[in-house]
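Standup notes
- DV: blocked on the single-chain target, sequence here:
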Amino acid sequence: MTYADASQSTLYTEEYSQDFADSFDGIAGWEARSAAEGDHLTSLLRQHGAQRVLDAACGTGFHLALLADRGFELLGSDGAPAMIERARVNLAARNLQMPLEVCDWRTLSQKMGSGFDAVLCLGDSFAHLLSSDMQLTVLRQFAAVLKPGGIVIIDHRNYDRVVEAGTYIEKPSGYCCCGDAPPRTLTIDEDGLVNCHYRSSDGKEFSFRTFPVRRSEFAANLRQAGFAQIKTLIEGRESASAAAIDESDFLIEVAVKVHPAPETMA
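- DV (later): unblocked, structure below
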């Protein structure tokens, strides 16, 4: 499979199966993850005056629940139906109600509308877009749903490290997957994509393919999509040094919409 072929796939809908959705809460570790994240995401949104938030990769609802408790107006979407169904169950158990939609990011603005103060895309979800061109297309969709001055917050693995290593085992970081599953093993396959291998605490194994976008290329795509003021954070905090960024397994990109993306200009 080439990048051109892969970029048009909906492989993630198969990878995010009902079996994985049922195991994901244990892999993520809601309580441990909440303790590790603290108020960093809430503070970041409030710094930018965000109130109306679209979680474009809501998964099983962790950040929707966290932000609902803090008074934000929320909509959730995910490309995988199994994850949306699990999110409905999780939110209902917490007596939370909000709109949830199955939505391919390539049609995000058509389905979810516009006028959002912030778009979230967390959990390394963005890397399931398997080419740089497809990532640029979706960044333009994120810009289209945002108000001018709105922010996008996207996290991703530090793929520069993964590519350089070839095979990489993530160390426990207190970020993203904080449950009791073993560390994730990442390998570069023959197509240049990353195979991410997960094993849940009950022994079930799952694999995903992701695109190892370099940080410099990611920043260039953000600028081309109409974003500026790009910052790279480590687990929600601004880094004091380039060395700290280089050593982190997970990075968070924050950028501000400054003008309509080229494809959406009148």
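- Follow-up: The two ends are 36 Å apart (CA to CA).
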